[in-house]
Amino acid sequence: MEIDTIQRRQRDQYLDLDQRINELGNVTPIITGAATAPPTEQQPATRFIPPEEDVPEIREERDIPSTVTSLAGPQAVEVVMEITPEMEKAAYDDAFQSLKELRYSDAAEQFSDFLAAFPGSEYADNAQYWLGESYYVTRNYEIALEAFESLLAQFPESPKVPDSLLKIGYTHYELKQWELARAALTQVQDQYPGTTLARLAESRLRSMRLEGHF
Predict the structure, then answer these.
(1) Residue 113's closest CA among 28, 26, 29, 27?
(2) pLDDT, tens digit, for every residue of 182-209?
(3) Which position among 96, 116, 165, 186 has the lowest Cβ density within 10 Å, counted as fewest Cβ atoms?
């Protein structure tokens, strides 16, 4: 019976994610970095002094070319690639495409890279949410919880806040943290009454009551 329940719950997780992906039409980082040109190695020139020739008196330093400067290779040139909105969107789309293709590990890595490269992106809150989903659907619940909670902390005005709050409740449930799950799901009901999210929260709370968790 317990095995059937776990299998059904896992199936529901995949179906839920698939539905959310299908409902979302907008979804994009390219990771750009500074490149440096490697210095060209040069062998230092050795000055030959004839044995019987007097060594000329050394002149003041300002009259002598700097050996270090003259022998050093060209300075590394930092190449900064200009990031355009199109590049940013393309990177986000690549990560989301991986999610749609059920390549969850790739998606998680790409969304993480996107957030590191474009922390101020207009897609950052979506990327944070889908990062959490990538972990949640593969049952990496503790990491998923961190991702969803980060969205609430960093993007409190995001449209993804209600979904993240619901998933926080779900994730606490999977971690058997019953009181925390109940608190998050109740908050969804209170803050978003009459919505699909509120109905989903009530359904999970009902299951918790039937299972004797409160």
Answers:
(1) 29
(2) 999 999 999 999 999 999 999 999 999 9
(3) 116
Alpha-carbon gap, residue 57 to 60, rounded angstroms: 10
Mean pLDDT of all residues in 72-100: 81
What values do phi and psi take at 79, rounded to 5? -100, 115
Neighbours of 164 (CB within 10 A): 24
Please, which residues have CB within 8 angstroms of residue 165's CB and are 6 or more apart in sequence?
148, 152, 184, 187, 188, 191, 197
The CA distance from 194 to 159, in Å, is 17
The owner of tokens 């900064």 is 80
Q: Is 22 helix (H, G, I), strand (E, B) or coil?
A: helix
The 10s digit of each residue's pLDDT in 118-165 is: 999 999 999 999 999 999 999 999 999 999 999 999 999 999 999 999
- Residue 57 has which token pair? 């008196």
Domains defined for the chain, CATH in brackets: 11-25+84-210 (1.25.40.10)
How far is 127 from 48, CA to CA, in rounded Å? 65
